[in-house]
Amino acid sequence: MAVIDINADLGEGFGIWELGDDLALLDVLTSANVACGFHAGDPLIMRRVCAAAVERGVTVGAQVSYRDLAGFGRREMDVAAPELTAEVLYQLAALDGIARVEGGRVAYVKPHGALYNRIARDAVQARAVADAVRQYDPSLPLLTLPGSAVHDVADGLTVVAECFADRAYTPSGGLVSRRKPGAVIHDEETVAQRAVRMAVDGTVVAADGTAIAVEARSVCVHGDTPGAVALARAVRSALSGAGVALEPFA
After folding, report:
1. Residue in 104, 96, 20 with CA at minimum distance from that of residue 88
2. CB 86 within 8 A of CB 30
3. pLDDT tens digits, 112-155
4. Quick one: which of 225, 165, 230 has its CA closest to 191?
5. What pTM was computed for the model?
6. Residue 214 phi/psi, 5° resolution?
């Protein structure tokens, strides 16, 4: 039987500004990537999401990013390795402290946005992120793309591969830039079918129509996408209907 986790980015509001429906998504997910305040989120939002996740038995992960509130963490930055390590450590420790107060803990780490894409190809920044995780708690898995540079610099850390139900893929297995048309997929049936194919067959159709291998233990549905709750529900229903077991990886 195929086994997969469903994750999404949560806690991405800031102050009175709300983004997405965190509570509704928590009823669907098995893992929640909680923003740590650098690209989105604030202490109160972090606490609310952690409390709700613990109440529902959803695994909490630290969604770490570049320090880029204005750009929502989607602007690539050249940050020196020691500074990046310290900033990831800061975010991870902050969220874990809040999660523990609420009766849970951070169980894994997933970089966000531009940092996620950068460390897929940049070994220096990938090592800086891995160093932060190792120094805080080497038992924490890092969630990333299959074939990411993170796999080569993990040095003993557990690296878990994920796939994206609602993002278009390049023929090389990367994600199509959000600046290009069609990078984000909104049709529920299409997203659900892609999730099942990736979970069961380990393949996905890239933007050029070719089938590529995507071996993953977790599937992501973006929490900030319009209609995210409906998409996530469609994905969960389709996976269950295909006989796929839904279990967190951490």
Report:
1. 96
2. no
3. 999 999 999 999 999 999 999 999 999 999 999 999 999 999 99
4. 165
5. 0.95
6. -140, 90
